[in-house]
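Board notes (copied after class):
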Amino acid sequence: MSVAYDVVAQEGAPARPLPAAARSPVPPAQARLLDSVAAFTHHRDIDALDHSLALSLAELAPARAVVLCKRAADGRRLESLVRCAADAQGTFSLCVRAPVDDDPALAPVWRCMDQQQSLAEADAGDCRLYVPILHEGRALGALQLESDAPLEGARALAEGFARIYANYITLLNESERDKLTGLYNRRTFERHLQRLFHCPVAARAADERRASHAAPVGVWLAIFDIDHFKRINDTYGHIYGDEVILLLAQQMRASFRLADVLFRFGGEEFVILLAGQDEVQARSALERFRERVAGYLFPQVGHVTVSVGYALAAMGDYPETVIDRADKALYYAKAHGRNRTHGYEELAGRGELVAEPSTGSIDLF
């Protein structure tokens, strides 16, 4: 397809008009495609981008459903499935779920990613198309399209969306993640907090709790840092210090669930947004992590410990208030022996924090 460009005229010379063909309206199908691409690349939030991609492709492709299968950072598992499907009235709905390990239904997804090429399958009128999402020779995930009719006509469209998504998600990841560990960075943490305290997700969670009559679902903000980290750098050098941070990030990923969000602030400071049923569950998860780190043998350095402070992020709280509470609990843990976990609510209930100052180690606003 040839593209006509207008040429800026030199000063004093008349501009050359565009050919009539170039001034003609864009065909409706092309305009719709451009609108969809513009819509999903507008997002600066990865979750919103994922949802918009699935919805845009579902609206454009002749498919009853589109599934975005996202690969985890370690490459050994899928971290999430974003499914967009239309009901009998043609209304699209989104569903996000964690995939089940070793689910045989996901075997074609893995085959598509491993072979790094699109695959089409049909079984008794149930047709599926699998398209890998590739970037620099690595499969980031795959798109799965489902239909009652063969989907070969949608292959070029799906592959085009996969290429655009791969390029864009890579840029977002680079801006959202810490370069050393691959964990989310401080900038992303601020956006997560704003969404946690101000967007309808928290209200929806409350509605779900009322509907199910389940125990309150809490979100806990935990802050931890590496005990005596300066001593590690001074004794072994910054290269080994960086290796400790990198290996610690790997221990974090292995310890917490996909629903828990992990951040590095820089230096030896880390934050976790932890979803749990109650304080007992949250504390148990943080204690398992602390013990896991204490039992791990870091190359050259040996054993390393962390101190953890956490607080409940309740609806109606201000972000800086929750951070300050978790920071107070962390300060208490470090001032009372290190290598331990303390919660603000527990300490405040015992009157332990009356005279404790905040370290102010994390200043958000």
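Comment from the instructor: The mean pLDDT is 82. The chain has two domains: 20-174, 186-349.
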